[in-house]
Write a structure and sequence with these properties.
heterodimer; A: 523 residues; alpha/beta; Rossmann fold; 2 domains; seven-stranded mixed β-sheet; 17 helices; B: 364 residues; mainly alpha; 69% helix; transport (chain B); cell membrane (chain B); sugar transport (chain B); Simple sugar transport system permease protein (chain B); transmembrane helix (chain B)
Chain lengths: 523, 364
């Protein structure tokens, strides 16, 4: 911690060369120019945002910065000296730390053990714990070192990753979408930590889609689009809408929501749904009640891992309920029916994971139309696949939902997240389903695609369908949903009209604060 | 210094086509090294193993005869492997098929039973193989038991049952105490395609299996189901395809075809039951399936190549006094080369300098 202490000071250091400067960074993959002469400079004590849609080149740039990729062209200077980062070890030994979006933690080990696993082997567990306690006290990263990781929330897990990163004495910390799994309250705590870190002289590169938090936290922002820097701005001086416009390249429209009819007939009804978890450390569902009416968007908020996946499986029929009457579609009991039968009754489903769940990565788009549509007519005749019909349907989805792709019928894995999500959602919406259940409709999707998807979902509801949206993105739910319920520890709160709710009340429900004591962590 | 495998962005189509050919060439090279290490001339071995059989009409015919069971079994296995299910007990299903089908031949032995005998044998053989394969399928679908272990272990059970039958109840009373059954009647023997040759109608069944498998795999919703199940099991579930059902069906197909191969082999070219009705066709077919890239027509070609190694191996035993185990060794080398070539098509090998243990965290 010595060096960190030596440079400690208040706020950004405005004199001398920047801590890190990337000049003219270009990275070419085959015919794709992922990074095109990118310049990026970060000073000590600065919280710098890196913004851009999916596919804009953020990940490539960060991988170059962390030594995971070598640039085709360009140079990196560390405190004015040119450096070559041949691997993450070299990046780390310079003082670059990385907190990834996906945590790499051992669920069955304690926090201290997880931290020790990333440290040199000659340190004892007690020494590691002492160091971790120092760091966590210094930066307000409270976490119980003796608890096994599987009992922790995403926010606590992230704190472990940050502590692990801080124990490497970093001068620059890169955070990739750090708030995507946090409740608003947890995000606030993270911001306090980051501000303290910056105040102690550490530079932070903050990658996010969420413009409001970037405007709140960051003093400068570099915006990428299609591999190039389109602007370097002070995000506090520019509106979120203008920033989004720079990211997408065109002005964005708000979702035209209107308000759904409160009087429509219930089309999707769940009564007393309880379901044990299939996995170890999974979340069981407890006595879930809900009804989605025709013309309505019902939103389900919640922190990841509180039973959303299990709820989706039970609604879609991937897992059967304990009785036929537990789930009903348009008044018909379907709790005992599988996915295909529920689809035949007019329901459609979009799972959270695009690759591997909503689409087969190595199959072409035409084949991927079959995945959810093989049982509902038009694509299969007497067991034979009608190849022309699948191609025609794929083309229709691609055109209607503006799916951008390379080649006539590419494999699903080659599409960007946003474009594949448009395809997966479009595949279901084009059927004009009476009931649509979507889990995380715009997770990891660029702003342009997200706006298109949200509008399509709202339009579907307005045409008389019942739309259920499970999402971790509160902004999205407030934008689209007529009513919002919160899932926490496998229990669902009673839905309330969106107009009667505030982010704070929903945030409290998401942490389980409003749930009766004793149901929290009742593992 | 360590070695890393990096997934290639887009594996080249040419590399994909060339991989089996290069694997074959590499296997021949390595096989030559083994032969040289045993003190024989690799060139002479190449001549005996490959060139002589290919220039001899009798050997060519024999190659087709040996390819028949390989292709039948491998086509069945390709259904399993596509669905990412690992039936490696085809050898056992082959043996049980042979036993079940033979019950009809033995029961009607010496009677005037008519044309129904052969179809009944083929049917029972197929059903026997299916039944044997349904055991690992059931254990996997119901209890989650690894089908790799159960299907393999059932091979030994099947072989011991056959052994018991031909030494005990089914032993030919006039067979000078040899462990073998009576020789099948004409009505229980597959007709030959050529006079005086050994080519029987089994090869036609193999060809039909190839064509049907090609259509089913590439053009039906069932083939789609298998590919989705194998490549993305969660997507298969989302699609409404039940995994236990898929498991039962593919084991039934592969077990049925292996059982059919078993009775075809016995009724076609052996003509009786004895303890050694297979030189390991059920295991070799696994290599055939992969060498043929799980494509039915590829499997047909690969079956012929592997049949060649059997014939070459027999010839090498006689002329070069090389043990038959060398053939097995060569088949193993070939499988490794095929898997290696596949890996190299999908991944790039990269040498990375610097040991990961050199902890950068200690820089402070």
């Amino acid at each position: 911690m010595t060096e960190l202490g030596a440079t400690a000071g208040a706020g950004a250091d405005e004199t001398g060369p920047p801590l890190i400067a990337m000049h003219g960074i270009t990275k070419v993959f085959g015919s794709l120019v992922a990074n095109d002469h990118i310049d990026l400079a970060i000073r000590a004590g600065e919280i710098h945002a890196l913004l851009g849609e999916n596919g804009a080149g953020k990940s490539t740039l960060v991988k170059i910065l962390y030594g995971l990729l070598e640039p085709t062209e360009g140079e990196i200077r560390w405190r004015g000296e040119p450096v070559r980062l041949a691997g993450p070890q070299e990046a780390r030994s310079l003082g670059i730390g990385m907190v990834f979006q996906h945590f790499s933690l051992f669920e069955n080990l304690t926090v201290a053990e997880n931290i020790a696993a990333a440290m040199p082997p000659d340190l004892s567990l007690a020494e590691v714990a002492a160091k971790a306690r120092d760091v966590s006290g210094q930066y307000g990263l409270s976490v119980d070192l003796d608890r096994p990781v599987w009992t922790l929330s995403a926010g606590e897990r992230q704190r472990i990753e940050i502590i692990r990163c801080l124990l490497q004495d970093p001068r620059l910390i890169v955070l990739d979408e750090p708030t995507s799994v946090l409740t608003p309250q947890e995000a606030d705590r993270l911001f306090v930590t980051l501000e303290r870190l910056a105040a102690s002289g550490c530079a932070i590169l903050y990658i996010s889609h969420r413009l409001e938090e970037v405007r709140r936290l960051c003093s400068s922002a570099t915006i990428l689009r299609a591999g190039r820097v389109v602007a370097t701005i002070d995000p506090r001086a520019v509106s979120a809408r203008e920033i989004a416009g720079l990211m997408v390249g065109t002005a964005l429209h708000d979702v035209v929501a209107g308000r759904g009819a409160a009087e429509g007939a219930p089309r999707l009804v769940v009564r007393g749904l309880s379901l044990a978890s299939e996995k170890a450390h999974g979340q069981a569902l407890r006595d879930i009640e809900l009804a989605v009416r025709a013309g309505e968007v019902l939103g389900i908020a919640g922190v990841a891992g509180n039973g959303q996946g299990e709820l989706f499986a039970a609604l879609s029929g991937e897992r059967l309920a304990h009785g036929p009457d537990v789930v009903a579609i348009d008044g018909k009991p379907v709790g005992h029916l599988g996915v295909t039968e529920r689809r035949r009754l007019g329901a459609a489903f979009v799972p959270e994971e695009r690759l591997g769940h909503g689409a087969v990565p190595d199959h072409r788009l035409a084949e991927n139309t079959l995945l959810s549509r093989h049982g509902t007519g038009g694509l299969v005749s007497r067991g034979f696949v009608l190849a022309d019909a699948t191609r025609a349907l794929a083309t229709r989805i691609i055109e209607t939902f503006d799916v951008r792709k390379e080649g006539a019928d590419p494999r699903a894995r080659t599409l960007s997240g946003g474009n594949l999500q448009k395809f997966v959602v479009g595949r279901e919406i084009l059927r004009e389903p009476g009931v649509l259940v979507v889990n995380q409709p715009t997770w990891g999707v660029d702003a342009g695609a997200a706006a298109l998807i949200r509008q399509a979902l709202v339009d579907l509801a307005r045409s008389g369908s019942a739309v259920l949206i499970i999402s971790q993105d509160l902004d999205e739910l407030f934008e689209m949903a007529d009513r919002i319920a919160v899932i926490h520890a496998g229990e669902l709160s009673a839905p309330e009209a969106t107009g009667d709710l505030t982010r704070e009340t929903v945030g409290l429900l998401m942490t389980g604060a409003a749930a009766p004591k004793g149901t929290v962590h009742a593992h | 210094m360590r070695i890393e495998l990096q997934q290639r962005q887009a594996p080249s189509a040419i590399a994909r086509l060339l991989a089996p050919v290069l694997a074959l060439a590499a296997a021949f090279l390595l096989g030559g090294v083994v032969v040289a290490a045993m003190g024989r001339s690799p060139l002479a071995a190449l001549d005996v193993y490959v060139l002589q059989p290919l220039s001899d009409p009798w050997a060519l015919q024999e190659m087709v005869v040996k390819a028949t069971p390989l292709v039948l079994i491998a086509v069945g296995l390709s259904f399993c492997f596509r669905a990412n299910l690992w039936n490696i007990g085809a050898e056992g299903q082959f043996v049980v098929g042979a036993i079940c089908g033979s019950t009809v031949a033995l029961a009607t032995h010496g009677t005037e039973a008519g044309a129904w005998v052969l179809p009944a044998m083929l049917l029972l053989g197929t059903l026997g193989g299916m039944a044997w394969a349904s055991v690992p399928a059931f254990l996997r679908a119901r209890f989650g038991v690894s089908e790799i272990l159960t299907s393999l272990m059932l091979v030994y059970v099947a072989e011991l049952i056959l052994d018991y039958l031909v030494r005990g109840p089914w032993r030919d009373p006039k067979g000078f105490n040899f462990p073998q059954s009576v020789t099948f009647d004409e009505a229980a023997t597959l007709p030959f395609l050529t006079d005086g040759g050994r080519l029987h109608v089994g090869i036609l069944m193999a060809l039909v299996a190839v064509v049907v498998a090609f259509v089913v795999m590439g053009h039906t919703i069932f083939g789609y189901r298998l590919r989705v199940t194998g490549e993305a099991p969660r997507a298969a579930r989302f699609s409404g395809f039940s995994e236990p059902r898929t498991t039962f069906i593919v084991f039934a197909i592969s077990g049925g075809l292996a059982g059919l191969a078993g009775i075809v082999e016995v009724a076609g070219q052996i003509g009786q039951l004895k303890p050694s009705i297979s030189p390991g066709y059920g295991f070799t077919a696994i290599i055939v399936a992969f060498l043929g890239r799980l494509n039915p027509f590829g499997i047909l070609l690969a079956g012929l190549v592997m049949a060649l190694t059997f014939i070459g191996g027999e010839a090498a035993q006689i002329t070069l006094r090389l043990p038959f185990d060398l053939t097995r060794t060569f088949q193993g080398i070939l499988l490794f080369c095929v898997l290696g070539a596949d890996a190299l098509v999908t991944y790039r090998v990269r040498l990375v300098r610097g040991a990961p243990a050199q902890a950068a965290g200690r820089a402070a």
